[in-house]
């Protein structure tokens, strides 16, 4: 039986975290949804025809955090102990800023859970407002802060990536 | 039995599309993942430690398109007949541009499916590169083009929203 | 090869509806959630500590309708074209009455989708109010009306089952 | 950047249980499915045309318990270590009484898991018997007993809610 | 903006079937589960400690057929109109032969749905018998017959692959 | 109220593992996909028209391991801490051998997770190659090794089941 091993160059696998200590971990992420003045005015006035935009987006974001391991192939399934999704209106630019927060006691971090919550909340806002403005843009989806684990505290700002300004 | 109706102000519900005609519909969306030069170089060289970043993100995006109705509360379940996720490298800004395409013969459009595919592909790239650069930013998540349905052809550019510049 | 056929007595299988005509079908279902005066007062006043009870239950019900085929083993997967969940308060008995409505153009009815939406909305109300009253009861979960298909129109009342009065 | 905080009145979020102790928790719930004499006779005789009603409902209930966090928006994902669904026939009223039991070692209770198991088992019975009796009613869906956690033992009867008698 | 196209060599995508005609399609698949005499005797006698093995495997197989597009990345979501899973005992070799059947009116075939049903039914039998025999083997998982679509009727035997004999 | 207990003969339930100790557990499984020389040659040459077969199958297998409790009715939900899927080519018989590995610190074993990963990876290979060879056979799906838990180390070979040789 002549075998040829295909995986020499390190193909995709879920990293082994079995031996990591269980510790408290949390992460904050955000995303920004920018729309036309008309779409934003309708959202703020609570007159969107599909219903309450932010209440729906909040539930969608919370539910999505729990689906992260089903969506992101190499993510570990995690028993989240806290998920929160908040919104701030930025009327000067017709934007809704989404802030997500996840926490658990576990063997690996919850950055992807926080980012997934923010992303799906943003897509839900898009879905409910797209009849008025199909050109809505989702930007600034990024990690804000991370606590716990081997590397300890990380906060956006110290080390800057090349994202939008 | 005294009843008080709670839904006078039009609460969230899935829009009725039963009586819409079945027609061919398609949508293109995109997203941009911008990372540090080190993370980008590693991705391009195929040396990411978690595996082949773009192959994994492509599958994640395709799978996510099929989960759209499960993720976005008011989306209708749709029998997608085509999903594609492509990537272009933009070395000048250390970015990966994701282009998604969805198509079906159905009663409602596939914008959300295309946007969800692009968003989850972007999050998967984030996940696989975050060990090198946790500050990665996902931006420019937006609809590019849409065909079919009552409104016919829509293309980004005619009507501009207030997204990032 | 001596074979013994195990399925002579008609074991579970998903009924074949391939040859049924595609037609418009709809269904209405309901459920009743009865709680203590304290829990009901808190719900009505919008002071539940977990958040907006009915907005959350509405989204949960809509999402659940889309998961029906995943929950009920012999249900066919259906492309719902309309899902709605409404609530009526019945202060005289500290109850919330849930009314769900589903519709599609398809080969089989949507009774289970309407009943699943009502049931999961009811469970969500329970979840959000159980800290105040763990003894909440969900009752009167039943089909109210059904349109379309071979049997045409069915409405509760003509033929009475032995449920609660 | 002028911000307006939308969440002052405590919108929906998943309660933080990170700091709660891991302890053994269990819950019992029930539900009652009441049907016409003809439908009940067919179920008891094992002559339902869709297959073995109770075997199918039992599996559906067990599977549903594991999906609770996906169905109920603010439920925490839990690693259930025991799920059981039992049935008792009540011929005098043509009813099937469903009894569910869930258990785990965790940071929060399993009431919703037990209630979801009972509810989905009930809906599965409805689905399999509805061809004979569409007027079937599901009632008395409620928590029976709860052990573990800060509040310790709770049993139905001490404090009575306003449900059916 | 200098772009480098990564997908020249045809990366994974879901084949476009939008323009295919809707037609009736069906598929039969099978799988064989072979176990020790002790495990087989226990299964046949209905004395497996986890419960009724074949009733559980049948439901698992039916449910899995509906999850095919969620499991197999490039499969199209399909609205199955019939799923059936049957078992035959082959006492001479302590085997259970699983036969699955799927059908729909659609734009693409249901081979993967039939194969997924058979595979998950097989794994469920393994799960319930593994306490008695962890060495159980699943083999002969293959398509048996396929009807409909451009290629018409295909039946195992005409063209033979290199599988086991 | 006259009750008849239906569960005397031990119907299906999820085994109670609440009181088992949390310990490190791992499992290895495998599966063999055998195809025609033409399909195998195309796979090896990377010229399959649907895309990169093994990269897609690897992701599908990893994702499937995380869905095990959703697929196999009596499996406990487990927080896997490692999933790996590898492939070896066996050109002499036009076969791809799939090797899966799962690990966690938990109360029950991960055999089903490893077997599910191997099975779904096999089905994905089938899906991508079936246009060239619909007669592909999946065989030798079996547990290879298991570590941890009460029974300790188990390795295929000591005790032989009646599968293929």
TrEMBL record, chains A, B, C, D, E, F:
InterPro entries: MoaC (IPR023045), MoaC_bact/euk (IPR047594), MoaC_sf (IPR036522), MoCo_biosynth_MoaA/MoaC (IPR050105), Mopterin_CF_biosynth-C_dom (IPR002820)
Molecular function as annotated in GO: cyclic pyranopterin monophosphate synthase activity
Keyword Lyase tagged: yes
Pathway as given in its UniProt record: Cofactor biosynthesis; molybdopterin biosynthesis
The EC number(s) this enzyme carries: 4.6.1.17
Active site per the UniProt annotation: 127
Molybdopterin cofactor biosynthesis C (MoaC) domain: residues covered: 14-149
UniProt KW keywords: Lyase, Molybdenum cofactor biosynthesis
Keyword Lyase recorded: yes
CDD domains linked to this entry: MoaC_PE (cd01420)
Catalytic activity: (8S)-3',8-cyclo-7,8-dihydroguanosine 5'-triphosphate = cyclic pyranopterin phosphate + diphosphate
Enzyme class per UniProt: lyase
Residue numbers binding substrate: 74-76, 112-113
Family: Belongs to the MoaC family.
Purpose: Catalyzes the conversion of (8S)-3',8-cyclo-7,8-dihydroguanosine 5'-triphosphate to cyclic pyranopterin monophosphate (cPMP).
Quaternary structure and partners: Homohexamer; trimer of dimers.
Protein name: Cyclic pyranopterin monophosphate synthase
Record organism: Microbulbifer taiwanensis
């Amino acid at each position: 039986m002549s075998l040829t091993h295909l995986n020499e160059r390190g193909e995709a696998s879920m990293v082994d975290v079995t031996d990591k200590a269980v510790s408290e971990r949390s992460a904050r992420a955000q995303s920004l949804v920018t729309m036309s003045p008309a779409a934003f005015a309708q959202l703020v006035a609570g007159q969107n025809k599909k219903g309450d935009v932010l209440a729906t987006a909040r539930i969608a974001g919370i539910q999505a955090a729990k689906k992260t391991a089903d969506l992101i192939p190499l993510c570990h399934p995690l028993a989240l102990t806290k998920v929160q999704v908040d919104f701030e209106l930025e009327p000067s630019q017709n934007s809704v800023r989404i802030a997500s927060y996840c926490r658990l006691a576990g063997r690996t971090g919850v950055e992807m859970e926080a980012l997934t919550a923010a992303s799906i909340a943003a897509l839900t806002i898009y879905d409910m407002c797209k009849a008025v403005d199909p050109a809505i843009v989702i930007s600034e989806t990024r990690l804000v802060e991370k606590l716990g684990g081997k590397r300890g505290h990380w906060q956006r700002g110290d080390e800057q990536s090349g994202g939008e300004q």
